[in-house]
Amino acid sequence: MSGVTITFVEPDGTEKIIEDAVVGESLMNVAKDNGVEGIWGDCGGGCACGTCHVYVDEKWQDVVGKPDDIEEMTLDMVTEAQQDNSRLCCQIQVSPELDGVRLTVVPAE
Ligand code: FES
């Protein structure tokens, strides 16, 4: 099976299109493996640091879903840039449904 395509918009507006994301991998790891600017993943995916903050494109919000309570709490603590479409991308797993998803990287504060 071919990979899932994920687009990250880096802080300077560059679109990084990754076409071979592996199902089950976290989007934070996909971003780091592909050198996406602004995704640091300092806590290793533990939902504790907020350095994997992204905004989910509006039309993808229903597919990606909302943060759970723990993720919401971390977002509250680590960023003032939180919006309705904020997610910590270490908490999102690649799935076939996400093929084509577009995420904007929010630089850590
Ligand atoms: S990598 Fe730390 S919160 Fe996602």
Automatic annotation (TrEMBL):
InterPro entries: 2Fe-2S_ferredoxin-like_sf, 2Fe-2S_ferredoxin-type, Adrenodoxin-like, Beta-grasp_dom_sf
Protein name (record): 2Fe-2S iron-sulfur cluster binding domain-containing protein
GO molecular function: 2 iron, 2 sulfur cluster binding; electron transfer activity; metal ion binding
Family as reported in the entry's similarity comment: Belongs to the adrenodoxin/putidaredoxin family.
Keywords, comma-separated and alphabetical: 2Fe-2S, Iron, Iron-sulfur, Metal-binding
The organism's place on the tree of life at top rank: Bacteria
Family annotation (Pfam families): Fer2 (PF00111)
Stretches assigned to the 2Fe-2S ferredoxin-type domain: 4-109
GO aspect biological process, one term: P450-containing electron transport chain
Cofactor(s) required for function per UniProt: [2Fe-2S] cluster
